[in-house]
Amino acid sequence: MAHSRKKPFVCRQCGRGFRRTHIREHTKGKNLICSKCREDFLLKSLVIRHQRTHLL
Ligand SMILES: [Zn+2]
Ligand SMILES: [Zn+2]
């Protein structure tokens, strides 16, 4: 598995790879982080809407 295109962002804080930056997980606004995939969002409403995709 040489390719990791699905996780282009490598977090400078924890060194893990993510599809998007999740820097808020290390700062504030943890309620804006998806508990499933650790993506972060600007609005809580976006997190809720996003998390529905995990239920499909
Ligand atoms: Zn991190
Ligand atoms: Zn998610």
TrEMBL record:
Entry keywords, A to Z: Metal-binding, Zinc, Zinc-finger
Residue intervals of the C2H2-type domain: 32-56
Zinc keyword on record: yes
Listed name of the protein: C2H2-type domain-containing protein
An MF annotation (GO) of this entry: zinc ion binding
